[in-house]
Write a structure and sequence with these properties.
The protein has about 90 residues and is α+β, with helices and mostly antiparallel strands. The chain is about 45% helix and about 15% strand. The strands form two sheets. The chain has a two-stranded antiparallel ribbon with strand order 1-2. A hairpin with a 2-residue loop joins strand 3 and strand 4.
Length: about 90
């Protein structure tokens, strides 16, 4: 017959073994990892000018203003320049 301490140590070993098995099964069955990154654009869709809030029925490449990592929708050169100035004031570049 096993003593009380042996029973508890055996219980904990079995418990740790069960946890290890369950965690390896649950981690490996995810199958996805990180989601795939998809780049989207406003081009070809309706949009709104970021500066003056004028509706743009279909955004074209000339309506897109890219400054560093940011992308803005603008209705024309006047709003593009206003956004460039705002961006310089906000972020220093």
């Amino acid at each position: 017959m096993l003593c009380c301490a042996c029973k508890w140590s055996r219980f904990f070993v079995l418990l740790l073994l069960a946890i290890a098995i369950l965690s390896s099964v649950s981690c490996s069955s995810g199958g996805g990892g990180y989601p795939e990154i998809k780049v989207t654009t406003a081009e070809g869709r309706p949009g709104v000018c970021h500066n003056c809030q004028q509706a743009i029925p279909v955004v074209h490449s000339d309506n897109l203003l890219k400054i560093q990592a940011a992308q803005y929708i603008t209705c024309g050169e006047k709003c593009s320049e206003a956004l460039r100035q705002w961006h310089r004031e906000q972020f220093g570049k």
